[in-house]
Structures are given as C-alpha cells and as structure tokens.
Design a protein that fits this description.
Largest sheet: 7 strands, antiparallel
Structural class: alpha+beta
CATH topology: Alpha-D-Glucose-1,6-Bisphosphate, Chain A, domain 4
InterPro entries: START-like_dom_sf (IPR023393), START_2 (IPR045736)
Mean pLDDT: 90
CATH architecture: 2-Layer Sandwich
Number of helices: 3
Helix content: 10-25%
CATH superfamily: START domain
Distance between the termini: 55 Å
Radius of gyration: 16 Å
Oligomer: single chain
Low-confidence stretches: 1-5
Number of strands: 7
Shape: globular
C-alpha cells in the first residue's frame, strides 16, 4: 500500500525596507496589475475573484484569504482542479511602519513545501524589483 504524498510545509519569513508609503505600495501587493509588474510573469482574475498567477507558463490558482486595506493581503493557493486543500500553501504580504524611523517594511510569509537554498535570493530579487517599481 502506498502512503499519500505528504510534503511538510513551513513558513519562510523575511522583512524588506521599502521607501514608499503604504497607500502607494499596497496596490502592488493586492491587485493583479500591480503583482504582474514585479512578482510573476502575469496575474489574471478568474472564476469569481480567484487569481491565476503565471510563472514560466504554469498556472497557479489562488483566492484572497485575508485583506486589510493598505496593511496586508494573503493569497491562499488552490490544489488540483482549483479546489481548496486541507493545509494550503499561502503567501502573505504585510506592511509595517516604524514610528521611530518612519520607514515602511514589507513582511513576507511564504508558507509552502518548496523551500530551497536559493529562496532568500529569490525574495531579495523580487523585493529589489518592487523597489524599482515604486521608486523606493
């Protein structure tokens, strides 16, 4: 008897200073057009508010699981046949402001089973691309 394919998911968390106000930055985190400018090859709205994230011509479907205007957004990825999973992978972006330095930080939580040694480099590159887009 074959055991089910179980992948242990863990959160990868990282913070990046971004020189832009939350009002300017948030649309880059919470809209298909904004995400497509820095995060992946393309993002499209499909099926009643779901999103299709495209990387290397592969589709990855997600739902918005939680959103707080100008503060945070969580994308919960769907399984095969675009169905919810018991322990879904998710991606969460949260904006924090330092009251002391007045800097804005992007906190990223990547909860998935696909962690690799290059994951920090990948996120560093994505954050640099986001900074270029927002001018910060």
């Amino acid at each position: 008897m074959a055991l089910p394919d179980t992948q242990i998911k863990t959160p990868f968390e990282v913070d990046y200073p971004i020189n832009a106000s939350p009002k300017i930055l948030f649309p880059y985190l919470a809209t298909a057009g904004g995400l497509a400018q820095w995060f992946c090859d393309d993002v499209r709205y499909v099926d009643g508010g779901r999103l299709n994230f495209v990387w290397d011509r592969e589709n990855h479907y997600a739902e918005v699981g939680l959103q707080r205007l100008n503060r945070s957004v969580r994308y919960v990825f769907l399984g095969p046949e675009r169905s919810p999973e018991d322990d879904p992978s998710y991606l969460e972006f949260t904006l924090h402001s330092s009251q002391v330095t007045d800097e804005v930080y992007l906190h990223v939580v990547d909860y998935s089973a696909s962690h690799s040694a290059e994951q920090r480099e990948l996120w560093d590159g994505l954050a640099a691309k986001l900074r270029e887009q927002v001018g910060g």
